[in-house]
Every structure is written in C-alpha cells, then in structure tokens.
Structure prediction request, 233 residues.
Amino acid sequence: MSFATPGFDRRRFLLASAGLAGLSGTALAQGYGQAFKVDNDEGRPIANMRLPGEIVGEIPALRGVTYVGPAEAETTLYEFFDYNCPYCRKAAADMASLSESDPSLRIGLVNNPILAVQSAQAAKVALAIQRRLGSAAAWTLYRTLLAKPGKIDGSGALQAAAKLGVPAAEIEGIADSEEIRLALKAQMRMAADLGLSATPSYVIGNTGLLGHPGAKALARMIAATRRCDRITC
Prediction:
C-alpha cells in the first residue's frame, strides 16, 4: 500500500522519518556496565545502569506512550523499542506474558526507531492509532506488528492499523501531523538522554536495562523493585 493519498506527501514523510532516526547519535555515553549484578534468562549478565531520577521522572509526561495495566500501579516497566529490532519480537511476546501474569504491573511502550527509516514510519502509524483510538488499540497493533516476519515499514503498519476500524487515509493524515512528529521526536530524545542506545531497552525505577533479559529475569527484577526499590535485593 502506498502513502500517496490526497494531502499526504510521501517524500516529506520519509525525510521527516529519516531526520528522527538520526537522533540516535546524540545518546549520552553512560557506558555498558552493571550497576547491579543481574542475569538474563540464559544466565548471562545483563547490562544495566543507574539513571538520573530527574530525567526518568519526565517519562510519564511524554505524549503518545502506549500503556497497558492499571494507572495506579506501584511499578511501571517502560520498554523503548524499534519495530525492526529482532530482539523486540521476542520482547513483545514477553511483554504480553508479563501483562497477563501480573495484573498489578503497568507497561509503557516508548518508540525508539533507531534502526531504519522504515521503523520511524511504522512508529508514526502506531502513534496515530494511539492518538485516534487509545492505548488498547495501540497495544494490539504493537503485538500484531511484532508478531509478523520480515521488515516492518509504514505501508505494512498502515495495512495492519486499517484493520482496527479507522480509514487508512485518516490514519495517514494523523501520522503525518506535526503533533505526531513532535511526539516521536520527544520519545526518541528521551531514549537518547537516558543513554538507551540499544533496542529493546527498559526502565524500571531509576535503572536502565540494555537489551532484552527475558520474561523470567524481568519478572524477578519487578518483584525485587517492589520489595526493595532496586532490581535486585
């Protein structure tokens, strides 16, 4: 499916997406170490770092974050992801599993399309769905897209999004708006400011995790955060 519909400038869309993808170069050099000794599901160390609390505190104010789980949850797990990251496919299945098994957990999905222009296109479509239909529909789209094999681009995201009941032309129009461009730019800037230069990356409390540790490891860290406000006690 083409983005070339009345009122939609495909070339401008691509150029804007390319500019957003370039933000990854501004990530802070905070290093790939272990602030805490934690292992992934395979028993290997998972890179993590302490994050500035004042910057983490700004995440809830970001526009366009997709949330699943209770708003009053004690613990929120943020995933910063790219639709064309192969590890994000496994992460999406694990996010769904965590959400279903832990009704007290809130998950926040933050777009960080640093791997390809196509990733930024798909992120804009997802943000358009979030803007038009809310987090429940955006959560469905996230799971649908990351369950598909092959590269995900704007056209593929648009086809999947159109099945949620909004005309494709309307989705395109929202995706191409200044509001969506600024929302995506802010989400990517947040990832860069936190030094989350890998996808997926996670934020739990004031700790950043680089890479996907697996559902069991994440569950352990969530439980530890509830007990002692750290990812390991």
Q: What stands out?
A: Confidence is low (pLDDT under 50) at residues 1-31.
